[in-house]
Design goal:
Layout: H1 8-13, H2 34-43, H3 46-50, H4 53-67, E1 71-73, H5 80-84, E2 88-92, E3 96-100, H6 119-131, E4 137-143, H7 145-154, H8 162-170, H9 172-196, E5 200-205, H10 213-234, E6 240-244, H11 251-258, E7 262-264, H12 271-277, E8 284-288, H13 290-295, H14 297-310, E9 316-320, H15 330-341
Parallel strand pairs: 1-4, 4-5, 5-6, 6-7, 7-8, 8-9
Antiparallel strand pairs: 2-3
Helix pairs in contact: 4-6, 7-8, 7-9, 8-9, 9-10, 10-11, 12-14
The protein binds coproporphyrinogen III.
Length: about 350
């Protein structure tokens, strides 16, 4: 019998340090890739791709084929959960997602749940699993309840998430009921991704930074802790990465309070500060500024060096601090890989 091929990224998530850190990039399957844009034009739109399991599997694999990243992330979106909870979902060209009816002026219990909308996603997971090299770690994901709720309440993205923040303060019982429903849907969704073949999962809390400390405790730490607790009951060996973007000084409390296995850091966090503040054994992921990757040149080299040196003594996964931007030159991604892998 041959030994299983090593998955460097999974090893790091389980607490092992790798000499050369594994690397993947948030939003690595997307618009900066010509092969993505070609398939999107053929299928007609983003949601058409996300719910077509052959197309979504192909897009998940595209950046692995081109760059040989250590991790593949499932091609889908955090907003498929509100869609499955019964809101309509569509993307306005050049603007972003829309959800209707929005919960600022309608009730959750008036929605008709549509869980079958998620079925193609699990099919995508099985197809990717079958096509992925043995050394590549496969990451599933979901949005965290607070971030998902901000879209469900406002019906679209917003600058300061004020509609959801208002509801959280003014109608805490109603808001808590919404958060509980999202927690339940998310646990079920991630559990089914794991059963279909992902190796680890990431919780994206893109708007964690917009809350006061007390509200952060209630709507970020507590619901994510509940997701971790329930997922670990069913899948104790599957690592969970938490990414509370903008959490800053609340990162250590988040890590301790939620029990996530690894912590994603955004680009506003000083990596040397993070290394000092966070438990020594805790794996971290991040945190190159996506704009340094667009700039390239000496700016990119020094930013990469700074991150590698800060995390030289702990389990570290190299990543961006947020998603790769559509105008990122492909050659800069190639250069980044040679810098991180010291080729
Ligand atoms: O990382 C990956 O490559 C996997 C797929 C993935 C997408 N969205 C695909 C996508 C992941 C992990 C996400 C997460 C996501 N989606 C988040 C959390 C992370 C973050 O970026 O803060 C959020 C807030 C969303 C909601 C969402 N989806 C918005 C606000 C938008 C519009 C803005 C934009 O970037 O176009 C999307 C669309 C979206 N999701 C695209 C992709 C590839 C672009 C679709 C296209 O036009 O082709």
């Amino acid at each position: 019998m041959t030994a299983p091929a090593p998955k460097k990224l999974l090893n790091v998530l389980k607490g092992q340090r790798e000499e050369i850190p594994p690397v993947w990039l948030m939003r690595q399957a997307g618009r900066y890739l010509p092969e993505y844009r070609a398939l999107r034009a053929e299928k007609g739109g983003f949601l058409e791709l996300a719910y077509d399991s052959d197309a979504a599997a192909e897009i998940t694999l595209q950046p692995i084929r081109r760059f040989g990243f250590d991790g593949a992330i499932l091609f889908s979106d955090i907003l498929v959960i509100p869609h499955a909870m019964g809101q309509d979902l569509w993307f306005e060209t050049g603007e972003g997602p829309r959800l209707a009816p929005r919960l600022a002026d309608s009730r959750l219990d008036e929605l008709t749940p549509a869980p079958q909308r998620l079925t193609p996603v699990f099919e995508t997971v099985r197809k990717v699993r079958a096509g992925l090299p043995d050394t590549t770690t496969f990451l599933g994901f979901a949005g965290s309840p607070w971030t998902v709720a901000t879209y469900m309440v406002h019906g679209q993205g917003s600058k300061d998430q004020s509609e959801a923040r208002r509801m959280a303060h003014a109608e805490p019982a109603r808001f808590a009921a919404l958060i509980d429903e999202i927690v339940a849907a998310t646990v079920d969704y991630l559990g089914r991704q794991i059963e279909a073949g992902v190796d680890a999962v990431q919780l994206f809390d893109s708007w964690a930074g917009s809350l006061s400390p007390a509200q952060f405790e209630k709507w970020v730490i507590a619901p994510n802790a509940e997701i971790v607790r329930r997922l670990k009951e069913r899948h104790p060996d599957t690592p969970i990465i938490g990414f509370p973007k903008g959490a800053g000084g609340k990162l250590a409390a988040y890590a301790e309070g939620t029990g996530v296995d690894a912590l994603g850091l955004d680009e506003t966090v000083d990596p040397h500060w993070a290394d000092r503040e966070l438990p020594k054994a805790l794996p971290v992921q991040g945190n190159l500024d996506p704009l340094a990757l667009i700039a390239g040149g000496p700016d990119l080299e020094s930013a990469v060096d700074n991150i590698l040196s800060a995390f030289a003594d702990r389990p570290h996964i190299f990543n961006l601090g947020h998603g790769i931007l559509p105008d990122t030159p492909i050659e800069h991604v190639e250069k980044l890989l040679t810098l991180v892998r010291r080729d």
